[in-house]
Design goal:
Ammonium transporter fold; mainly alpha; 373 residues
Length: 373
């Protein structure tokens, strides 16, 4: 009995390892058990979980622990940016509650991520510096406005079984920057930098280590993170939710970086990840919206390529009027991919309301095939 007690002791290496593995497995996927548990708790805890899911929804996840890791990455990058993001998230989520939006959608963070993105981009483009408190006003208004737009777009897009995605974010940030510009005394913004590379046309001098780092930063740039540590944390948050999506995020960023290199964009766009984040989003969008197979894998790569080149084209077009392309390229390309009607692809398409982690989608398909057999 003494030997048996020692074997089952918490200090036993095997038992500790199994406990760590169980905790990690519990934190993967959508964590539905935790979501059910939180529903019986006090409202502040529920709101915290909704907001953490909203943070992760920015990058097509639905996991509160991933959201917490991403929030830690934002705090590491810039506490001011993290505060703006959380404020925009709260503004959009509270607005959704006040409007009486679907409880399941609110608790899943679907009415929070657009507000967070708007707030982050307002902070990035603001030339007034950090801790400029006047910026809190447009952050709150912009976050709330995304909820109104998503509420209006949802019934229209539901007819084609399409998500409202980040259409509200792209629309609001474009309107805000068009209204304020670079010379507004209260909310001044940085001018949009051109993509052309007149000062660096010899691309045999590309710094390969910085180029590889830029591929990782492409994932971080989805949250406007420009340093390696926070970007690795964000990639780890994706890995926690779904290894397949983490692979697609990095693959898409690599494709976007190569696309930028092929048309001679400035090196700072390659090294900072700005050339890769639309490719990452485009690749992940197909990976999340279709059941994994060799056909959908090729479609994910095609989506990344189209998103990357569309982003370059849109950047050059919108720079003429001093506006950023934001994530319009990935949003439009991903929406078109979801509208494809080919028979060999349609059977792999996942209904919007049933989208979950790719691994769980694969398991569900296997169960359906077993039941048919």
């Amino acid at each position: 009995m003494k030997i048996l007690r020692e074997t089952n002791s918490p200090q036993h290496p095997g038992g500790l390892k199994q406990r760590v593995i169980r905790i990690l497995l519990y934190c993967t996927g959508e964590m539905q058990q935790f979501h059910t548990f939180i529903q019986d708790q006090i409202f502040p805890l529920q709101l915290a979980e909704w907001c953490l899911r909203g943070i992760s929804r920015v990058i097509l996840l639905n996991n509160p622990v991933s959201g917490a890791v991403i929030l830690a990455a934002l705090l590491l990058e810039s506490p001011w940016q993290a505060m703006l993001g959380v404020l925009g998230l709260l503004a959009s989520t509270v607005t959704a509650i006040m409007l009486g939006q679907d409880c399941e959608e609110v608790s899943g963070g679907l009415h929070g991520f657009n507000g967070m993105l708007v707030a982050l981009l307002m902070g990035v483009f603001s030339s007034a510096g950090e801790w400029y408190l006047w910026l809190l006003l447009p952050v709150c208004l912009g976050g709330a406005t995304t909820t109104f737009l998503s509420s209006g777009l949802a019934p229209v897009l539901d007819r084609w079984d399409l998500p409202f995605s980040v259409f509200p974010f792209n629309t609001v940030i474009l309107l805000y920057l068009a209204c304020t510009g670079t010379s507004t005394p209260y909310f001044p913004n940085y001018p949009v930098l051109p993509l052309g590379a007149p000062e660096s046309t010899n691309h045999t001098q590309v710094n390969v280590p910085q180029l590889l780092q830029g591929a990782v930063l492409g994932v971080g740039q989805i949250f406007a993170c420009e340093t390696l540590g926070p970007s690795l944390l964000i990639l780890g948050a994706v890995l926690l939710f779904s290894p397949i999506l983490a692979f697609y995020a990095f693959l898409g960023s690599v494709i976007g970086t190569v696309a930028g290199l092929s048309v001679s964009v400035q090196h700072r766009f390659l090294y900072s990840g700005l050339s890769g984040f639309n490719g990452a989003l485009g690749c992940m969008g197909v990976g999340a919206g279709f059941i994994f197979s060799w056909r959908t894998h090729l479609l994910s790569i095609a989506s990344a390529v189209l998103s990357a080149y569309a982003d370059i084209a849109l950047r050059k077009l919108l720079a003429v009027v001093d506006l950023p392309a934001s994530s319009w390229a990935a949003t439009l390309t991903g929406t078109l991919m979801l509208l494809l009607t080919g028979k060999n692809l349609r059977e792999y398409r996942i209904p919007t309301r049933k989208v979950t982690s790719p691994e769980l989608n694969l398991d569900s398909q296997d169960l359906d095939l077993d039941s048919v057999v």
